[in-house]
Specification:
Number of strands: 15
Strand content: 15-25%
Radius of gyration: 22 Å
Oligomer: single chain
Helix content: 25-40%
Distance between the termini: 29 Å
Number of helices: 13
Length: 429
């Protein structure tokens, strides 16, 4: 198989078209601003005027390479080396397959797709057209996750027999994204295990490799965010609710307080194009983010435990829970036959390695080198983009850690886990 086209030999930057100019597409595009000699945005397809115009203006994209619909871009001759696809989850398959056939290399926002069949179709299209596919499981590129794998592979803690991995979503973050927001309803997006935790299933597969998962079970429920838990005298919207001040999920508290503090980034930029007191207040009065959390159409799990058994007898568990003070700061414990690793992947990620023989603990700090504008996911967004651009510039596909085969394997485990939960049984591979 030949390597992807390299832009290094002629000294030109890798050129890219962004499909979907919202939070993630816009975020990844910032790599071009930080490293213009390596990466250049030359096209955009985005149906919303504000987000399309923002990318066009920031990157000085010519009008002939600006589209409202990705299909119009796909109908043109190939004019960039790669594409970033950051459309809504259920709209990944169409542009991924069409643009793979055009020969574009692809950086695809996670999840790859929302069904097993669509994931397989995307992988097949990329392989048949020899296009590089990198899926945005950004945590795999983070220094703490890579260091944890390095320690496991070194044999320092012996053979791994169990991993306990917790994803604390954060009480207000879950309310924002999975109760009021875009990922609240499975029929419109995906189950929360796929939308939020395909990152984490991917990490478990990576850390346990070369062992393969052979069976999976899963349990979860929709807790608290339902009409039966609505407090007496609560309104349907936070802006006119009598007891809003006593509710931890108050939209006024979550959003308006941030505006007053001068914050204009996520999550405010999700609910208002230009966040200020007036625009955010209007969004809370009239939009989905001002709804009472007990009056939404959410049906995705607010907490879920998934168990995995591997072919060597080792086990792993993933706990996803909404009701936490920590915001997506993963907690990991790895138990081996000669020691254990504890990881707090918070603001300053740190690993602690305990040796059974010496009964000593050593600490490993995992600070992330990051271009300031690419600090998302603790700097992992930067490491992902550096790997993707580096792979295209050098022709070295091994820089991509979350390619088609690895991503498909971990996605299949997510689909199996949901099957196990819904059918109340153990699913075997």
């Amino acid at each position: 198989m030949t390597s992807p086209a390299s832009a290094e030999s002629d000294g030109k930057p890798v050129t890219c078209m962004v499909i979907g100019g919202g939070n993630r597409g816009y975020g990844y595009s910032k790599y071009a601003k930080a490293f213009p000699a390596e990466f250049k945005i030359v096209g955009v397809a985005e149906p919303r005027d504000f987000y399309r115009q923002r990318l066009q203006d920031e990157h000085q994209i010519p009008q002939g390479s600006v589209f409202k619909d990705w299909r119009d871009a796909a109908n043109k001759d190939k004019f960039a080396d790669c594409v970033i696809i950051a459309t809504p989850d259920r709209e990944h398959k169409g542009p991924a397959i069409a643009l793979a056939k055009k020969g574009y290399h692809i950086l695809l926002e996670k999840p790859m797709a929302v069904t097993e069949e669509e994931c397989r179709e995307i992988v097949t299209a990329c392989k048949e057209n020899n296009t590089l596919l990198a899926v945005c499981h950004v945590l795999r590129y983070s220094p703490w996750a890579k260091k944890l794998k390095e320690i496991i592979d070194s044999g320092e803690i012996g053979d791994v027999v169990n991993i306990q991995h917790t994803e604390p979503v954060g009480y207000w973050h879950f309310a924002h994204s999975f109760v009021r927001g875009n990922w609240r309803n499975e029929s419109e997006s995906a189950c929360s295990l796929l939308a939020k935790c395909c990152h984490d299933v991917d990490l478990l597969c990576h850390w346990m490799s070369p062992q393969k998962c052979i069976r999976v079970s899963s349990f979860g429920s929709v807790s608290h965010f339902k009409k039966s838990d609505k407090p007496k005298d609560a309104g349907d919207r936070c802006m006119d609710c009598k007891i809003e001040r006593d509710c931890p999920y108050s939209a006024k508290k979550i959003y308006l307080d941030l505006v007053k503090q001068g914050h204009v980034g996520w999550p405010l930029k999700v609910i208002a194009e230009v966040p200020d007191i007036e625009s955010v207040t209007d969004a809370l009065k009239n939009g989905p983010y001002g709804r009472c959390v007990y009056e939404c159409d959410n049906d995705v799990m607010s907490h879920q435990v998934t168990n995995f058994q591997f072919d060597n007898g080792a086990t792993a568990s993933l706990t996803m829970v909404a009701f936490t003070s920590r915001l997506c700061a993963r907690e990991v414990k790895v138990y081996g036959t000669k020691g254990e690793i504890t990881c707090d992947a918070g603001y300053l990620p740190k690993l602690k390695v305990f040796n059974f023989l010496t009964e000593c603990t050593r600490e490993v700090e995992c600070r992330s080198e990051s271009a300031g504008v690419l600090g998302g996911h603790g700097g992992a967004d930067y490491h992902l983009m550096r790997s993707f651009v580096g792979a295209l510039r050098s022709g070295n596909r091994e820089l991509i850690q979350t390619g088609s085969d690895e991503t498909l394997a971990s996605h299949l485990l997510v689909f199996a886990a949901e099957k196990a939960r819904k059918e109340n049984r153990v699913v075997e591979f």
